[in-house]
Amino acid sequence: MSEPTKETGKAALAVLFLVTMIDLIGFGIIIPFLTYLVKDLAEAEGIVQIGLWVGLLMTAYSAAQFLSSPFWGSLSDRIGRRPVLMIGLVGNTVFFTAFGFSNTLLFALSTRFLAGFSNGNIAVARAYIGDVSSPQQLATRMGIIGAAFGLGFTIGPFIGGEFSSPAERWDLFVGTVFDTYPYLLPCVIASVLSAGSLVLAYFKLPESLDLSVPKEAPKGPLHLRAKATAGNALVMLKSASIGAMIWVSMLFTFGFTVMHAVFILYTEMGVDLGGLDFSEQQNGRVFAIIGLLGILTQGVLIGPLTRRFGTRRLIPIAIGVTGLGLFLLPYTTPSYVWLQMLAVCSMIAIGNGLFQPSSSTYLTRIARHEGYELGSVMGAQESLGAFARILGPLSGGLVWEWSYNGSYPFDYHTAFHLCGLLMLISAILTLRLPDLPPLEESPYASLAAEGTSSG
User: Fold this and answer.
1) Which of 130, 168, 232, 322 lies 20 to 30 Å from 200, alpha-carbon distance?
2) Per-domain residue ranges for the chain?
3) For range 13-27, the mean pLDDT
4) Residue 337, CB half-sphere, CA atoms under 13 Å: how many?
């Protein structure tokens, strides 16, 4: 591993912030308009299972990441973090725009899958942070990457909501390709942002690993190497500490992403049916609120709260706060909609904003203590996280189709109750997490004196 300078570390963090943010923009940009897109395409194709297709399209991106993340993580251990991150940005640039041209549900499903398959950036960015950070810096630096999650989850849904169907709002777009494809414009904006990050990464992102020592090339056919990678992930899952944290994280993500599928299905319902009758723009603004609060939490609060409670104790607190917010979402009433929405969104955003950097910090320190390669560990975590993001929206869509016309408690509330139940199970499993090992000196302690008190 090469010895990076403090200045190199800061430049790399800025680029990683953008790379992570772009990934979350791509994931979140479809949330405000996805239900409306599915309704338009399903009506043309004679399909009536709206909830199921919303779940499938939300799932496709994560299903592909589940299959590819262990490979990208292991590959980054061998050839370096930088080239793998750039491959992911190329995939984002191409497939974001391709999704905007969807004219059938199958085409939309295919482009979302390909976008996810080409992108292992979240796991690799976390491994990069682990490469260039001292143990004392991890909470703060994972918080910076977590803030990128929050900003991406703010910008993505906001762009998706505000720039959907532009021809209906601005004469400039009438009669153009954006009139024919009403959801293309937000996708093009996301592609432009990704292309800009690709150029910045090419010129400003140094490699974090020492590649002067030759690495042994992988042997055997691709399917055997994929099997070996999966076997390595299973070994980690059997570890008492790493495995427990990955399962806690998976269940948290499962519960959180159920909401991604059913939130718009709930808010776009008419008030007479129990919904809020929201538009794409209103939905985008709600997710923008969640993202902004997440930025505040991960950029400002995570350091002081980590010092106060410690990473290990902060994890179940974060899960509990998030679960309560998700459980209460469908009890929002039209009379006080924005006040109540702000309250539940605050719980969701703050809880999630605390959980993401805390779980990454815990996993990185345990991996170092037990001698695992960070790329492989983060790849395993992201793979299981992607698996949860497969189950979450798909389960949410299926539960919605089954229950939303029923009577309480088996009605449109049911999917949100499922979110709360999964969070409860995740919180209970944190009892299996051992205490973190003591902080040790790192050869990279000179990288950031500003983080020495935040571990």
Assistant:
1) 130
2) 6-208+232-433
3) 82
4) 12
